[in-house]
Amino acid sequence: MVYGGFLGYHLPKDQSIGYWSGGAVIERQHRINEQIRISPLRVIDQHGKQLGVLSRDEALALARREGLDLVEVNPNARPPVCRLMDYGKFKYQQKKKHKKEHQVQVKEIRFRASTTDHDLETKLRHAREILEGKDKVQLTMQLLSRARQLLNVEEARARMEAAVQQLSDVGRVERPIQLEGNRLTVLLAPASSSK
User: Fold this and answer.
1) Which of the four pLDDT bands, split at 50, 70 and 90, describes residue 149?
2) Number of folded domains that form the chain
3) Residues 71-123: pLDDT tens digits?
4) Pairing of strands 136-142, 106-112
5) Span 30-85, pLDDT tens digits
6) Which residues pair with 108 in a beta bridge?
């Protein structure tokens, strides 16, 4: 139950008019049909045309005749403004509008030039899963060996190109192989994304 504040009434959470939770307003629900208690109402039809000020019973009868719902869109106006609409369709469109799109992240996979073939296959399998999940992957190969000796850059570049070739069915090169200090990097994007 949600306490209605200074008004002194309680509503179930799913029928709340809007309430505070830690300083943020939670989604405002609309009163529909019999939940609307006040009369008279300013009524707008489904095409946006004002029908004038009607009593609650007249507005409900009109909504039933049209096969629509009477939805209170502005309860603070005097008289309150109500609209004739298909409420289920309205809620579906609102949910669709507020649905978040997948935000692309860049995930880095690091390995050394001296990494064994089996370990590299495991890392590339992980990179494949990331690309299939519609995120970007940055492959980073460190050119220093454990003995802190700089390895052959051309051999490392060939190995990086082979790794990119293994992922070519699920990813495309967004930023080509670059030497950055003592590292080789390449950025791969999902193959299906268009940018």
Assistant:
1) low
2) 2
3) 888 888 888 999 998 888 888 887 887 776 667 889 999 998 888 999 999 99
4) parallel
5) 788 888 888 889 999 888 889 899 998 999 999 999 899 888 888 888 889 999 98
6) 138
Shared domain check, 69 and 156: no
Contact in structure between 68 and 85 (CB atoms under 8 Å): yes
User: Residue 105: what residue type?
Assistant: Q
Indicate yes or no: pTM above 0.85: no
Judge whether 195 lies within some domain. no
Hey, what amino acid is at 73?
Answer: V
Does one domain contain both 47 and 82?
Answer: yes
| Domain containing residue 21 | 2-98
Tokens matching residue 156:
């490392």
Q: Which of 98, 118, 147 is the last residue of a domain?
A: 98
Q: Which of 69, 77, 2 is nearest to 31 (CA)?
A: 69
Interior angle at CA 77, CA 15 and CA 31, nearest 5: 20
